[in-house]
Amino acid sequence: MAVPWFTVPAPSDIGEHRSTRAPCNVPVMARTYPYIGPADIREAARSQPRGTPIRSLGDLANWLGTARGDGLTATFVVSLAGDLLLAPRQSEHVAAAGGEPVRSAGEMTFDPDGTVTAVTNQSTGYGPEPDSWPEVASALDRIGALRPSAFTEAFDFRRCTSCGSVNLVKDGWLVCAVCDQNLPKIWNLASVDQMDAGDIGAH
Ligand SMILES: [Zn+2]
Q1: What residue ranges do the domains of the chain occupy?
Q2: What is the pTM of this model?
Q3: How many angstroms is it from 102 CA to the middle of ligand 1?
Q4: How far apart are the CA of 162 and the centre of ligand 1, in A?
């Protein structure tokens, strides 16, 4: 990707995203992503710990200290409230999110000093769009972490209209990995929102 990173973040809309925080309520402005993965993984996730909320550089240092054995790449989600939640890399995103919808999700890599060196939106459980970056940036800026200016690797997700599989699209290759049918040109996971609306309402 040609997007330069590790520069001072410039997007003018970051402040607006920050102002949409609404604890215990689904924010009106920010797009949220319900879990779209297999039901058995969601069920198994109920007995697994939620991600650790990171609300300060101290929280981040503590988390990196306890996670040292797992390396410095974490599973992350940005919660409905806009908080960054971290979990060990092998964790399911739906477990890290406590089963709730998210604003973004993926993998995040840190330097030992807590600088964020890489962020992706790689989460087939939620399939967040590359456009969810401002939510990640906002969550990191609130704790004061140094970060890239964009996803360092961004993926597109599509649901196959033939077999229903969620595909992670690389290099614009819009062909289903399961059944070889062509995938839609635009993001099409939102139709699942209605199926999960009950979960959001129950929060
Ligand atoms: Zn398919």
Answers
A1: 2-9+19-156
A2: 0.76
A3: 25
A4: 5
